[in-house]
Amino acid sequence: MAEKITLKQMAELLHIGMTSAYLLKKQPGFPVVKVGRKYLVDSEKLEKWLENANEIQIG
After folding, report:
1. Are 21 and 11 in contact (CB under 8 A)?
2. What pLDDT, on a 0 to 100 scale, did the predictor assign at position 56?
3. What is the DSSP string of 5-46?
4. According to the model, what pLDDT value does residue 38 have?
5. Burial class (CB in 10 A: 0-12, 13-18, 19+), 32
6. How far apart are CA 3 and CA 17, in angstroms?
7. What does pLDDT average to in each consecutive run of 10 residues of the chain (59 residues)?
């Protein structure tokens, strides 16, 4: 099972602010689930999502 990380952990990992993290979570297909009051991101799916987003921008 893939590790789930919080938006704060994701922001720290990607070196972005919390505002950017919240904007990212609103993007179509972003791998986030809401559990209670927390948003959790699947770390493996995040990596794949970022790769696909990068290919779209470059391509």
Report:
1. yes
2. 66
3. EEHHHHHHHHT--HHHHHHHHTSTT--EEEETTEEEEEHHHH
4. 95
5. buried
6. 21
7. 91 96 93 96 95 70
Residue 10 near residue 21 (C-beta atoms within 8 A): yes
**Is there a contact between 8 and 18 (Cβ–Cβ < 8 Å)?**
yes
Please give the structure tokens belonging to residue 13.
């990992």
Measured CA to CA, the distance from residue 23 to residue 36 in angstroms comes to: 19
Under 8 Å between Cβ of 59 and 49? no
Provide the whole-model pTM: 0.84
User: Rg (Cα) of the chain, in Å, rounded?
Assistant: 11
